[in-house]
Structures are given as structure tokens and as C-alpha cells.
């Protein structure tokens, strides 16, 4: 059974005004002072002081992974509450914000190199690490999961608002993230040697700092023996995060089986994959998506159910098929985080109240 780990980036906000607060350093100091062994290697600072990241431990059981996501969110809320702020699983701030860059050498380089593109990156994502047995298997997986990743983006979409306005996107975070020169979908690699050579050539240009900046939608982790799927928004509800992780593991397992059986990956070009990602970011599961195999529009529900069918064997073998079906049915019925945020605004008329409600939903 492949292990799965999740990294989530959370927004630190004022519990009364809903405005982001640059207090990650203070929150991490509270974590250290608390002395809980389970939290010492869980929470980390991020590019901006208004963000806090956590990472779960590798899990094989999806119920255990879901429980750990909830626990980490609740612990983040507890530590933040001790210094007078709150955490929200929001991929962008609904309210206007002036980001505060965490000033270490790496982040200073980013600010100097990319200017306003760096200052705009106060966005929160979710990364899913799925174990692979070798770099060769990992690259074979990367080649085969490419067209399915926009479906995960549609499910996770949780960033409809940008600087106080409705962006008209379900995932505006992904549009901001793609301003990095190394972000987005990739061409077919074909082998681990070609993957590593491309990353080395990218670093050698001097445009990016190091291999950590290969911000592909999915990549080989430079720290762990995993494929890291990086396409998703941080999900408003922990249950949606669990669904994304479940589908990500099943996609990796399905791709590895296809590779071992000699199946060729779909050969869609990067231009088509960018269009599929744009469509997923624009409307999420509300309207239409580009089907991963044909790259033609179909109702989003049909595409997501085809995703479930594509990975059904892997889900069944892991004991996750019923849970995945239930999770997808729930997602299609209640919508993603973007829909919830828009419904909250329609009901309350206040983006501040949207943030307050999302603080509560984050910990459920």
C-alpha cells in the first residue's frame, strides 16, 4: 500500500476583522514553547508571514490521514488562538491584503528576482505526496497523470475572491501561481534521466534558484521518495482534502500499473494541458471540464465520474472505493470551497463574515 502525506498552507487572519495577519513567526514560537513532540516537525513558516504550513505524517489508511488533517488544523487554530489570531483554509484572502514577505536569504532572492510576481503570491495550496518505488516509476507516473490533474484542481477550487473582488474563477490561486516561470504542466519526460536533465538545465539558466523551484503541477520530491502532486488549492473542508488525497494515490497507483503493463501515456501537448487547467480553474465542478482523454468539453460531473472510473481498481484494492464515491457525491452536491464562499457572501453580504464562517469550517 502506497503511503500518502499532505501539506497544507493555511491563512492567518484576525478573528474579528477577517484580515490576514503576519504572525507566523509568533505562532511557530508558540508551537515551540508548547513543547508537544507531535507538533515540532509538523508546522513551518512560508513565503509570507500571513501563512502557516503543516505536513502530515505518511499514512496508508485514508481515515487516519483525514483524522490527522483535522488534528493538524485544530492544533494550528489552538496555537494561533493563543496569540490572538485564527486560521482559515482559504486559498486566497477574500479581503484586500498587503503581503509581508518572510525575510530570509531564499525569500529575499525571490523578491529581488521576480518583483511583483513574488509579492502577489499570498496563495495557499495543498500538496499530496504519494510514495513511489524509484525515480523511473515516479517519472512514468508523472507522464501518465498529467491530463487528470485539472480534475483535482476543479474539486479543490477554493479561491474565488482576490483583493476584495470576485475573480470569476473557482481557483484564482492557480492563475496567480502560474506567474512563476517554472510552474504548470510539463511535457512527457520518458525517463528519469531526461527529467533530471531538464531540471538541471532549468537551474543552470539562473532564472530559477534551485531544483526546489521546479514548480511543476506534479514532480519528483527532492526530499522524499514520492511523487508530489501540487495542483490543488488548500481545501476549505477537511473531507474534500481527504478526497483529493485519495484520488491522488489512486492516480499514482493506476499510472504505475499502466507503465508496468507497457501502456503508453496520453501524448497531449502542454498547450492543451494549460487549457484544461484554465477551464478547471474557471468553473470548477459547476459547468464543463475538458475530458482528460479527448480534450473536449463535457459536463464536469461526467468528467469527475470518469476520473473515478479510471482509478476504480486502485481505489477498490486500497479499500477506498466506497469512501471515494461518497466523497465525490458530496462534492457534486454541495460544491467546492469556492461555491461555499460565494454562497456565504450572498447570504451575509460581507466578506468579513465569509472569513469568519470559513474559520469555523476549517476545523470541522
TrEMBL record:
Transmembrane segments: none annotated. It holds the Pfam family GCS2. One of its GO terms (molecular function) is ligase activity. It comes from Streptomyces andamanensis. The keyword ATP-binding applies. Its EC number is 6.3.2.2. This is Putative glutamate--cysteine ligase 2. Keywords: ATP-binding, Ligase, Nucleotide-binding. It catalyses: L-cysteine + L-glutamate + ATP = gamma-L-glutamyl-L-cysteine + ADP + phosphate + H(+). ATP-dependent carboxylate-amine ligase which exhibits weak glutamate--cysteine ligase activity. Gene3D superfamilies: 3.30.590.20. The keyword Ligase applies. PANTHER family: GLUTAMATE--CYSTEINE LIGASE 2-RELATED. InterPro entries: GCL_type2/YbdK_subfam (IPR050141), GCS2 (IPR006336), Gln_synth/guanido_kin_cat_dom (IPR014746), YbdK (IPR011793). Belongs to the glutamate--cysteine ligase type 2 family. YbdK subfamily.
